[in-house]
Amino acid sequence: MVVDSGSTDATADIARAAGARVLQRKFDGFRSQKAFAVAQATHDWVLCLDADERVGEALRASIEAARATGFGDAAGYRFARLDNYFGRFLRHGNAYPDHVLRLFDRRCGGWRGDREVHEAASVDGPVRTLAGDLVHFPYRSLEQQLAKTQRYARMMAEHDFARGKRATLGKLVLSPAWRFWRGWLLRGGFLDGWHGLVYAYVRANYVRQKTIMLWLLQNGQAVATPPAPGAADD
Length: 234
Description:
Elements: E1 2-4, H1 11-17, E2 22-24, H2 30-40, E3 45-47, E4 53-55, H3 57-68, E5 76-85, E6 88-90, E7 100-105, E8 109-110, E9 122-123, E10 127-136, H4 142-162, H5 169-186, H6 193-218
Parallel strand pairs: 1-2, 5-10
Antiparallel strand pairs: 3-7, 4-10, 5-6, 5-7, 8-9
Helix pairs in contact: 4-6, 5-6
């Protein structure tokens, strides 16, 4: 099953041609979109994938082996996500293994909570780890990555502010630096060459943007351009 939110390419047609059931739904949040998809499933066990993710061969074998045993006593399975970053797979730093829970019994949980960005599934019951990687192709260009991370930074800042979280001067100064050095040096991001260096810089910048936006919000300042007066509501 594919949930499409109004794509303008051939996504829906390709999916239908491959035998998938395609549902159209206006996008109103990452978590909400995935929760909707899980609710429409016809089986109890679901595997949730984003459009930029692929199941690697080793992971596919692990999933098929788990299914052959009836998924054992597990309520869900997590596995590593492997990012392809401008032509190189990142196997160190903050990027890997990035374990994600994507295969689960929807009777035991799903995409819960109210956070629409950096959403995560959760289940009530044992969670096991499968071998193999979920291959991720997150960015088409640096410009697209910067725009995406800025949007995510704003969404996270707004979410944190609504929950009562506040930024401090210390976090403004230290948090971005800690994210860089933790990923690039302590977790071995430098082993991924210049790809690892650029990735660490951009991720540190994400933390910087998020913290600045949270600081602005708590001081009564806007972090997004307001709509023009009289603009039509889509």
